[in-house]
Task: structure prediction
Amino acid sequence: MSYQYAPQGLIIQNAMYYNMDVTGHLQNHVNQQGGKIHIPHGTQYNDFFGRDPAPGVGKQLVITYRHGPYGQEQRATFNECQAVDIQYQPQQAPPSGLIIQNAMYYNMDVTAHVQKHIAANGGKLHVTHGTQYNDWFGRDPAPGVGKQLVITYRDGPYGQEQRATFNECQAIDIHPSQQSFNAPPSGLIIQNAMYYNMDVTAHVQKHIAANGGKLHVTHGTQYNDWFGRDPAPGVGKQLVITYRDGPYGQEQRATFNECQAIDIHPSQQSFNAPSGLIIHNAMYYNMDVTAHIQKHIASNGGKLHVTHGTQYNDWFGRDPAPGVGKQLVITYRDGPYGQEQRATFNECQAIDIHPQHQQQVYPQY
Result:
């Protein structure tokens, strides 16, 4: 098999040193250190990462990571030369219950706080009406200012991403459903759906669940009626859907004008775990070429190989910015279980990314 199974150790989702992406560098460090991050105090980050991205400017290292594939996403920030010591904490089997992707109370990150609350409450999130959020989170991030709590979460590891917003002291009552305990779904998975400025993700996902995993809306359907209200009367609106073809499909985006027919069917990959590279996002200057590159990979045995001198403008079919130097930035995984990686290429540069033939590795608990 050409994809990695759940690794033993930290998984680096993203790492930025000032404006320099050091994700791959840090993941390599983790792999060499037995799954942990250990950078002694006084280490020159410029030397550690190989260059100074902004000479004379104070810089921070911001790391987004998980404790293995089942840990929730966490973020840590370090000043230059500060010690970094993050030990891997093995997680038990895939969690049931809600998984918090991100929780922000005004400008204060309370993700870990909310996840701990859920872990202590049988997988659910229940806060009674009248609870002072300032007291619950331990401080008031903006005295005298009205604040909201915005939570992005999944209903178990296989649920689609959802977002909920609560005003101060509002009751919160989010319970996991049965899908929190079940294997990955087949059919389309909606990552996000916006109708003008109205979030209709849950509505579209429910439609799919009721229609055998597919999204079918007939031509002439009034989106205002379908979604229950008109978010902007008298204004032309579009529906923008970001989705995956099953849990292993790459992220795709589709845009529809009001009353336009929608017909998106899951393919066989919705049911099967793929081998080979999975492209999460690929941008050539400001042009999204994700689907183009994924098709290239599918027709090349799971790998991405572009010879030196290839004109990217010709390869992608047009020049998004004539006369301007451009880069191709690819975010990808080595199979569904590999960590997210990013690679940047200048125009006409050779690209050679092969899936790694890893043996199946499972976490030790």
Observations:
- The chain has a mean pLDDT of 81.
- The chain has four domains: 10-86, 97-180, 187-270, 277-353.
- The longest strand covers residues 10-17.
- The CA atoms of residues 124 and 226 lie 30 Å apart.
